[in-house]
Design goal:
Layout lengths: L1 H23 L19 E14 L8 E8 L4 E8 H4 L11 E11 L2 E11 L2 E4 L42
Parallel strand pairs: 3-5
Antiparallel strand pairs: 1-2, 1-4, 2-3, 4-5, 5-6
């Protein structure tokens, strides 16, 4: 009986780190929901302007919060720029705040009866945040579109400290 209890507790503690992944998942920010289907490759445009505010929104019931920017364009229009899920945007190197001058490329949509842009890329100074591809597939979903779709943006140092003791698996 005691051994069974120990094994059960060991299994619980072993699986505990994985429970956070299961709970968060994509937070409803998957490719095939009504909100993400608003992206239309035929309405892609670019705008430049100043960030008026950075806000958290919940686009649809069942989705986790997302980040959107209220932007005053060079033409004087106010446009809501939808970036993506908070859990993704908050963990990027580039962050946004009121007063930032930005350039955005994205799909023009109507959201809650107002013009909006679902962002593909947002540039601030020399930094660019890529959020979606030309078809609207979000980067946070790790979508691959065919063989060899990787961008090769790894940051490994490649110094190699091995002693060569591994088996050579190449077919020469």
């Amino acid at each position: 009986m005691k051994i069974t209890q120990i094994l059960v507790w060991a299994a619980v503690f072993a699986l505990l780190p994985f429970s956070s992944f299961a709970q968060r998942g994509s937070g409803g920010w998957c490719t095939n929901n009504n909100y993400n289907r608003l992206f239309n490759p035929g309405t892609i445009e670019e705008l430049k302007g100043s960030v008026v505010s950075v806000e958290k929104i919940t686009p649809e019931t069942g989705m986790s919060t997302g980040i959107h920017l209220m932007v005053k364009t060079e033409k004087g229009e106010s446009v809501s720029v939808h970036l993506g899920p908070s859990w993704y945007i908050d963990n990027q190197d580039i962050q946004f705040m009121a007063g930032d001058m930005i350039s955005v490329k994205g799909s023009k949509i109507t959201y809650q009866n107002a013009p909006a842009l679902v962002a593909m890329t947002v540039q601030k100074g020399e930094q660019t945040l890529t959020l979606r591809d030309n078809k609207g597939n979000p980067t946070w979903n790790g979508v691959r579109t065919g063989k060899g779709a990787g961008k090769g943006a790894g940051k490994g140092s490649g110094k190699g400290g091995g002693n060569g003791g591994g088996r050579n698996r190449s077919k020469s």
